[in-house]
Structure prediction request, 296 residues.
Amino acid sequence: MLRLRQLEALSAVITTGSISGAAKTLGISQPAMSRLIADLSKNFEFNLFNKRDGQLTPSQEIQLLYPDIERVLELMGNIQNTSAEINDRKAGHLKIACLPGFATSHLPKVVATFLKNRPEVTMTIEPDRPERILEWMAGEQYDIGITDGFSGHPSVERTEIDIRTVCVFPQGHALGQLKEVTPTDLINEKLIHSRRDSVFFQSVSQAFQRAQIEFKSSIEVRQFTAACELVSNGLGVSILSELDASKYVNTGLEFRPFRPKIPHRLALLRPTLKRPSMISLEFMQLFHESLRQYQQ
Prediction:
């Protein structure tokens, strides 16, 4: 069988015109170089070189083969370079499935930080609902999933992150005089809230029930960012993640901590049986760290 080292030796002899020069180029002894060329000649079953004026020149057969040999050597060089870049975490492709709100709010800044020193890394970012994200992760179609309300799956590993919950209201609202907001403080407020089948909504609803306060539903939305937009238009108040609320502090909104403490539980997911790449592990770590200031 042909070996890469034999082809490298052949190329070095063609370039230098001698066994001694080729040996020096590859940093090996002349006997070792001679053995490589002899073994390659046996594999090809024809002469590799003709000797002319003290120089080794490629035979006609090698001249026919050499363009293909050059392509092989170039391809192997590219593979080695790419492998080194992967080991340095500077190359590769990362596929991320996330909640729609993340794709347009927090995630872009994290991606920009991550790619700053990784010019050869490419990404696919696919926003969708939690059910679809779980389906993709279980099917090993994506490297990382960012979702909420995750209850577990045997094919998916998770890292849970609890984000503080706040009450969001328009700037100048009476709630701004409070240090924290409770269900009792919202007795006369129209509430903009997450979908009723979500774990987060159920936790908030139970807090109102325990306080014996009616939950006055006004608008149901899927995304916290949409809730913030509706609050900014004076359509009510909302209880949601501080992570989302913080993006709207300069758009006419204020927020205060909500009590009792109800975490918005995010989950970083990856397929259990798919070996994670180094860049996927590093991105998950960076994303986790980016949420530390909002963690409960």
